[in-house]
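Objective 1b. Sequence-to-structure analysis of 3-oxo-5-alpha-steroid 4-dehydrogenase family protein.
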Amino acid sequence: MKISVVDARTGKKQLAELDLQAPSLTDLKKAYHQQKRVDPSRQAFYYVDATTGQRGKMIVAAENNGPVADLKDGSVVMFKDLGPQIAWRTVFLTEYFGPILTFPLAYFLAPYIHGEPVQLNNTQMIATVLFMAHFIKREFETLFVHVFGTDTMPIFNIFKNSIYYWGYAYLVAHFTIHPKYQSPSDLQVYIGAAGVVLSMLGNFVCHIILKNLRKPGEKGRKIPRGFLFEYVTCPNYTFEILEWIFFSIMIQSLPCFLYTLSGAGQMLPWAIKKHVALKKLFDGKDGRELYPKNRKVLVPFIF
């Protein structure tokens, strides 16, 4: 069957005509690459909105890489070049690597920045270990736990994300590994440290549950079950936010509270979007599961 490809920016300019039989998204990208020499990682295809004639929904891979829905002989799809791409895993490994070094870096630079070395107290040592452990855990999960829904992201993201993580991490380290740093009470430190460790473990358990949802090669979505997933849609975010709240309490640091608020501000809309999408997908119709009605977004029983 013949499929016309037009420019998504104008909606009119024809870019290619592909001759395919019941193509999967992979087939579509491969055929376009053969004609136009655009790497598949840069390709995005969209349906044409029947009402407006403008760009509609993005065409996504069908389950088990099956044929793209609603394509027939004479169909028109819109194409957008996403620009240079980079692997998600590469971006994550890079953005999480910098923060691992920031606390040791702040310690070794202290004599040059503050004019005197830092005599590490108990709180500063605990903070250093836990901060590094958090990002080492993230590196481990990136390599061995996380399953990425897409292979790549725009290459600019590696710079944007690294500036965010490396910058905030050094800001927290700079004011914590400081000669004039005053530690809060031992009780506050130990409660905060215990909360950090428990939240870190809870977050890891959630990631393992998500990893085991799908078998290798599966693309379909499933309802997560067990642990805190019985109460909220994104308990991994819940534990992540809790971890940074406890860390902020432990070191009693304004920059760390700001980092916590910034992270929570990013995770909240992600969690809401995922919650809405899962409720819409699992509507209990046509044999589909019904998403648990009592499940909240981030906070059990409340929100």
